[in-house]
Prior knowledge:
Elements: E1 3-4, E2 42-48, E3 61-67, H1 68-71, E4 76-78, H2 80-83, E5 85-87, E6 94-97, E7 103-107, E8 116-122, E9 128-130, E10 135-136, H3 138-141, E11 146-149, E12 156-168, E13 174-187, E14 192-200, H4 205-209, E15 212-222, E16 228-237, E17 253-260, E18 268-276, E19 287-290, E20 293-297, E21 306-310, E22 322-323, H5 324-328, E23 334-340, E24 345-351, E25 365-370, E26 375-378, E27 397-399, E28 402-407, E29 414-420, E30 426-432, E31 439-443
Parallel strand pairs: 1-4, 4-30
Antiparallel strand pairs: 2-3, 2-31, 3-5, 6-7, 7-8, 8-9, 8-10, 11-12, 12-13, 13-14, 15-16, 16-17, 17-18, 19-20, 20-21, 21-22, 23-24, 24-25, 25-26, 27-28, 28-29, 29-30
Protein name: DUF4374 domain-containing protein
Signal peptide: 1-24
Keywords: Signal
Amino acid sequence: MKRTFLNFKLLTLITIGLMTACxxxxxxxxxxxxxxxxxxxxxxxxxxxxxxxxxxxxxGTLIYAVSSKAAKDPNMSIEPFENGxxxxxxxxxxxxxxxxGNTIYNISYAGDTGGNYTKYTVExxxxxxxxxSEVSIAPYVGTAPRWIKLFDGDQxxxxxxxxxxxxxxxxxxxxxxxxxxxxxTLDLVNSSIKEFxxxxxxxxxxxxxxxxxxxxxxxxxxxxxxxxxxxxxxxxKVDPATAESDSxxxxxxxxTIVLDYPSLLNPSVITSxxxxxxxxxxxxxxxxxxxxxxxQANQSDPEGSHILKIGADNQYDDAYxxxxxxxxxxxxxxxxxxxxxxxxxxxxxxxxxxxAEGVAGAQGFFALADLNAKTAQKIDAIPYxxxxxxxxxxxxxxxxxxxxxxxxxxxQNGNIYVVDTETGDVTKGAELVNVVGSHFIGVF
Length: 444
């Protein structure tokens, strides 16, 4: 018997963490989850609705919250697309959650409300109660901002943008491409702007003369000392002879922009000799602080994605080599999203050269990795499908050594899975009911 979570508008939430049992003759009875503060927390499931094509996620984002007990229960059936709360956003919302799961933060992406920051108290089901004031970061970083919540106790968010312009000498010869970055920090508690700075960020003279420039930035993260902000970067290139875009070029060492924090001043660029390719990620957090160092994934590496390490000296630790191709015995690994627990074990969403081409893109997989041992193994307990699309995946929940994730091919039902990173055991949890063309983008 499955229990189905329905509309919560008429529901009075029951107190302190018990799930109302459904009657045997009414499988659709409405239930009201509330997490026990001693052993449960909210798990917010996010789904991206189809816009024009299956898996594009452009039809908006819906969220629905259940207790972690319910999330682990395979007898539960959850329908985010039918009963969920519509997170304000013209396209896929950029969501973050508090460390305890009780608050959801959202910045709308694109459209008339693009760049609007809102905060919600999670109350179960489709009930997300606005709290605090709205604030727009659009004047600082535009209506389609890349933003992330810093790991500073739910105090600060950081959003970034970059604009580029080719420069020429007096004889109209190309000299370099200027990359101007903007960085704004947002007080998540008081819903206010903390700091904003713009900088022209240069590469080496040789790299710029060859047409390289920073074309996209994302995924800021604080160092352990709390005095430096790292920002992931993607490089692009023009042909210096023509100033036209060049798509066939040598991939340089992975780079990260470093700023003083909280002033956001004194930009510099550090370069890895281990990994090559981009460090800006896409929609999921791409760099994490762990045991005094920052661990960062890279993408589009010719040798397959790496997990890179930035040490306490604010430089890449090139003695740390963790290549996902080598660890998994695959080729062209591409880390789509990932999340470590405090024990140094991580769940990684990835694709590779053997991925099937599904309705929305390349098939995705999950692996369990050990950052200290630099090993990884595909999680076989999770079912895979050619249409299991993880490129837009956003969120994992870490609860102790457990990591929660969502599984479900585009347009197909799936489940929540919980990975015990210490033992490797995998629990199949609640069913996730899908609708045509849509997909699940994680938990928060």
